Amino acid sequence: MKTPQPDILVLGGGVIGLSCAFELRRRGHRVTVLEQGRCGGQASGAAAGMLAPFAENGEQPDPFFLLCLQSLRLYPDWQLAVKETSGLDFEYARTGSLYVVYHEADSLVLASRKRWQDAYGARSELLDAAGLRRLEPNIAPEAAGALLYPEEAHVYAPDYVQALEEACRRTGVVIRDGLGAVEVARWLDGVELRASASGETFRGDRLVVANGAWAGLTESVFGMRIPVYPIRGQICAYETPDRPVRHMVFCSQGYVVGKRNGTLVCGASEDVAGFDTTVTRKGIARLESWNGKLFPFLSGRRPFHEWAGLRPASQDGFPLLGATSRSASVVFAAGHYRNGILLSPATAQVVADAIEGRETAGLPLGAFAPDRFGD
């Protein structure tokens, strides 16, 4: 006789929670998502949607880079599955990316990056100033060169998250949003969560903690350190119907990425502001200052849209991912900082494998152990 699948509660309806729910449901599990606000209402919907593990990691092939790289390579099949299941389209553009430098001496740093990253399949190309301008004619004349990563891509985050939610609903995931604060009332012997405002109780066999910047608030519940903190990320966008930027473009100050809808997204200005998502003039002015130096056509222009989201940053920069040693009933998927969109398919794979009692091949998962910070 087939063993019945456990009932799984997913705490958090952002891109990570929805991705875990979608993958678990595809594997036949019964899943309920519990969200305090609206799905994708924080870091997920506010993200620029970049899938750029090479451009955003120039240091070394650490465990976090390997996780990001695996997720990038899951994306082609993953995004197709989300589109086909949901019946909704969203932008997935393999434009490639450019990491731009302003000084000739920095080209030596790019050459060093190229050597170790190409060993992991980057297929990068080192460009001089003339080669860079052939690819991005509107780049600042001061730009001295760049490293091109042809494999990297981006998605339009709001549409992607909406499609994920619809894919979950169509496959039978129960989504309860607008609950307000949700408390973990029991987790050692079965799982019980309670919506504070209404008192409604939800019971299951297993719990996936995927509530982003709020994960740190559960420290006292689980009796272990969960150093995940909200970092306010401010982003702005310009109307550029002529689409003057062809690639995702990174520099030491931030990034610029053009979307199919004719907007140019620039980010990100980050600061510590608790759970405050207010957009500040100081934060947006910082973006306006450097993006005009990267693309002069932006100088003096005001963005038409400004917004902010809370990014869940962990103490060591690595997400908390997998089961805890305290109870097999609880699996964490939190602390993804600014990489939630990129890491959604790999995280879903790791979490579903953990629920099923197996380890995801090819990843040094010990580096992401949720209880690595101690009691």
UniProtKB/TrEMBL annotation:
<dbReference type="InterPro" id="IPR036188">
    <property type="entry name" value="FAD/NAD-bd_sf"/>
</dbReference>
<keyword id="KW-0560">Oxidoreductase</keyword>
<dbReference type="GO" id="GO:0043799">
    <property type="term" value="F:glycine oxidase activity"/>
</dbReference>
<feature type="domain" description="FAD dependent oxidoreductase">
    <location>
        <begin position="7"/>
        <end position="353"/>
    </location>
</feature>
<dbReference type="GO" id="GO:0005737">
    <property type="term" value="C:cytoplasm"/>
</dbReference>
<comment type="pathway">
    <text>Cofactor biosynthesis; thiamine diphosphate biosynthesis.</text>
</comment>
<protein>
    <recommendedName>
        <fullName>glycine oxidase</fullName>
        <ecNumber>1.4.3.19</ecNumber>
    </recommendedName>
</protein>
<dbReference type="Pfam" id="PF01266">
    <property type="entry name" value="DAO"/>
</dbReference>
<dbReference type="GO" id="GO:0009229">
    <property type="term" value="P:thiamine diphosphate biosynthetic process"/>
</dbReference>
<dbReference type="GO" id="GO:0009228">
    <property type="term" value="P:thiamine biosynthetic process"/>
</dbReference>
<keyword id="KW-0784">Thiamine biosynthesis</keyword>
<dbReference type="InterPro" id="IPR006076">
    <property type="entry name" value="FAD-dep_OxRdtase"/>
</dbReference>
<dbReference type="GO" id="GO:0050660">
    <property type="term" value="F:flavin adenine dinucleotide binding"/>
</dbReference>
<dbReference type="InterPro" id="IPR012727">
    <property type="entry name" value="Gly_oxidase_ThiO"/>
</dbReference>
